[in-house]
Amino acid sequence: AMGLFITTLARRYGGSNELRLFVATGILGGFTTFSAFSLDFATLWERGATLPAFGYALASLIGAIIALFLGLWLARSLP
After folding, report:
1. Does the pLDDT at position 9 exceed 90?
2. ∠43-45-49 over CA atoms, to 5°?
């Protein structure tokens, strides 16, 4: 579906390769990542694994925030 959308977008509106790459991986990639996270949570929940479901959600959230700050620190420490 992503390929169809990007190809149609490129044919109708043009745009640079960089713009198409940004839309495909940046914007649409974010939706697919969040969908996978949501599906994992829902699967655990539906199987009755309530505690692991919330543990997964909490660990994902905290891990993402830690990774963000680690990336900021690393970028700022480069010359």
Report:
1. no
2. 105
- Identity of residue 32: T
* Residues 40, 56: Cα–Cα separation, whole Å: 9
Amino acid at 30: G
For the chain, helix, strand, coil in percent to 5 are 90, 0, 10
pLDDT of 10-42, one tens digit each? 788 877 778 777 877 777 777 788 888 999 999
Q: How far apart are CA 11 and CA 4, in angstroms?
A: 11
Q: Are 47 and 35 in contact (CB under 8 A)?
A: no
Indicate the residue type of 11.
R
